[in-house]
Amino acid sequence: MSIRNRTRQAGFTLVEIAIVLVIIGLLLGGVLKGQELIENSRIKSIVNDMKAIQAAYNGYIDRYKALPGDELAATLTGRGWTGTAAAIAANGALAIPVGTTFGNTAATEQPALWRSLRGSGLITGDPAAGPGVPGLPTHGGGGLIGITAGPAYGMTGPLVCASGLTTKQAAGIDSLIDGGGAANNTGTLRGATAAGNPLNPAAVAPAATPYNETTATRWTVCMPI
Fold first, then answer.
1. In this predicted model, what pLDDT tens digit does every residue of 104-154 receive, in sequence order?
2. What percent of the chain is predicted at pLDDT more than 70?
3. N or C: which terminus of the chain has fewer CB atoms within 10 Å of its end residue's CB?
C-alpha cells in the first residue's frame, strides 16, 4: 500500500464530517423535543388534577347536599368513613383561610374536606389521612394541592390551588386555563411567586409578574371551584 493511500485513509472527508454533524444535530433536537413533550404532558397533568378537584367538590355537593368538609364528624362516621379528621362547624361555609391553604391544619375544615372527598370515592387517597401536609394531595408536578375558602388573589372562593410550580409550569397552566397571552394577575387563574414553598396565596390580587423562566422561586396558582 502506498504512502498516498495511507494518508487518505487517516482522516475524514468534509462530507463525512457533515453527516456526523447532521446526526448529532438530529439527536440533540430529538432530546430537546422529548423534554418539551414531557414538560407539556406534566403541565396538562397538573391542570387535570386541579379540574378533578373541581369536579369532585361539585359532585359531592350534588350527592350529599352539603359542602365537603362542612359536616359533623358523626355524619362522616355514619357513612362508614374511617379517619379522625372532622369539620369544626357545620354552618354552610368553609373555614379554610388563605393562610392555611397548604397547612391542612386541624383548626380548619380542610382535613375533613379531603376525608369526605376520599371517603365518597370522588378522589383517590386514604380517607383516614389526618391533618398536616401528608393529608394533602399532590399534583403532576410534585407540589401540593390545597383548598381555600377565599378570597385568594382577588378572587372569591372556594378555590383550588397548586403549589411548587416552576415558572414554565405556571405559564403553561395559565395559558391552558385562560388562553394565549394570559397574565398572572387576571382571568380565572391567578398566581404569584415568592420565597417559600409551598407558598400560601394572599387575599389580594397579585402584582403583574412576567413569566420569566429564569425566576428561581416557585409559583402558586389558584382558580375558583
1. 998 999 999 999 999 999 999 999 888 889 899 999 999 999 999 999 999
2. 93
3. N
Q: What does each C-alpha distance from 123 to 40, 68, 113, 157, 219 come to in angstroms?
A: 24, 12, 11, 20, 24
Question: Residue 201 in 3-state DSSP?
Answer: coil
Handedness of CA 209, 212, 218, 222 (dihedral sign): positive
The three grid cell numbers given for residue 154, joined into one nine-digit string:
382577588
Spatial contact of 187 and 215, defined as CB atoms under 8 Å apart: no
Domain membership flag for residue 128: yes
Domain membership flag for residue 35: no
- pTM for this entry: 0.84
As for how many domains the chain has, the answer is 1
Its domain, for residue 167, covers 42-224
Domain harbouring 96, CATH code: 3.30.1690
